[in-house]
């Protein structure tokens, strides 16, 4: 018990301990910055297909909601939906519904039902199951930031936060036991560093670095192609 109350750290003079504590925090931040990285950072980009799936690109860009927007745009262009008085509705005459993809048919059904479902959020919920295939494909190509990477990042952050909290908390209790209450700076250093570390390890983008670079490459490629007007609209307008 005596060693817990009297050891180099417990007996260290306040300013000296703050210097040590600051060094520990800095090392923890550097280690987190080194370990919390995107594994796809230096990976080559996938080849751009000659006929990319607009819905897969839309899902890569912003998820299922973007897929719904693209499907609506496609249905308008193909004459299934029309804009009347700032609202979407069915056209009086439209082609055979068998030509629609299941995803498109679901969006179309949302406007053909009575009453029509006009909330994009509700339509997105119905379309989400059709987007699982895009999720799987993009995950396999490492274009989305994988959950296992995020879990690993959080684990690193929690370990770093625990070290900072334990060291600072120990010195805090020792100081109180010795009747010293000028520990505000110690508390501030610990709390702010822990908050920053937890924020840093959790601030991951939905896309991996590879996915961001691939999407940017798609935008640059098809924005300059006159033969890919529809895809360019998907990538630029929405």
How would you explain this protein's 3D organization?
This is TIGR04222 domain-containing membrane protein. Keywords: Membrane, Transmembrane, Transmembrane helix. InterPro entries: Ser/Gly_Cys_C_dom. The protein is mainly alpha-helical and 238 residues long. The protein has 10 helices and 2 strands. The chain has 2 domains: 2-41 and 146-202; 54-140 and 228-236, no CATH class. Helices cover 65% and strands 3% of the residues. A two-stranded antiparallel sheet has the order 1-2.
Topology:
Elements: H1 2-5, H2 14-35, H3 54-62, H4 64-77, E1 81-84, E2 87-90, H5 102-112, H6 120-140, H7 147-177, H8 184-202, H9 209-223, H10 229-236
Antiparallel strand pairs: 1-2
Quick structural summary:
This protein is mostly helical and 238 residues long.
Total beta strand runs: 2
What are the low-pLDDT stretches, counting only 5+ consecutive residues below 50?
232-238
The major beta sheet can be summarized as:
2 strands, antiparallel
Query: What count of structural domains?
Result: 2
- Percent helix: 55-70%
Along the chain, the helix and strand elements come as HHHHEEHHHHHH
**Spatial order of the strands in the main sheet?**
1-2
Q: Helix count, per DSSP?
A: 10
Estimated structural class: mainly alpha
Percent of residues in β-strands: under 5%
How far from one another are the termini? 65 Å
């Amino acid at each position: 018990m005596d060693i817990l109350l009297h050891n180099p750290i417990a007996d260290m003079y306040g300013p000296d301990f703050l210097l040590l504590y600051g060094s520990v925090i800095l090392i923890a931040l550097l280690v987190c910055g080194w370990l919390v990285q995107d594994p796809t950072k230096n990976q080559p980009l996938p080849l751009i297909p000659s006929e990319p799936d607009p819905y897969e690109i839309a899902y890569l860009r912003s998820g299922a909601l973007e897929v719904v927007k693209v499907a609506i745009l496609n249905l308008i262009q193909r004459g299934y939906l029309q804009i009347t008085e700032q609202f979407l509705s069915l056209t009086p005459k439209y082609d055979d519904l068998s030509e629609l993809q299941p995803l498109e048919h679901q969006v179309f059904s949302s406007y053909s039902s009575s009453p029509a479902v006009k909330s994009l959020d509700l339509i997105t919920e119905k379309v989400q199951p059709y987007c699982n295939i895009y999720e799987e494909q993009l995950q396999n190509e490492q274009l989305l930031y994988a959950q296992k990477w995020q879990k690993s990042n959080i684990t690193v952050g929690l370990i770093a936060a625990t070290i900072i909290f334990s060291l600072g908390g120990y010195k805090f209790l020792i100081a109180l036991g010795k009747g010293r209450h000028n520990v505000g700076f110690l508390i501030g250093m610990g709390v702010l560093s822990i908050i920053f570390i937890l924020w840093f390890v959790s601030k991951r983008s939905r896309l991996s670095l590879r996915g961001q670079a691939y999407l940017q490459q798609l935008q640059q490629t098809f924005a300059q192609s006159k033969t890919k007007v529809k895809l360019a609209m998907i990538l630029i307008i929405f």
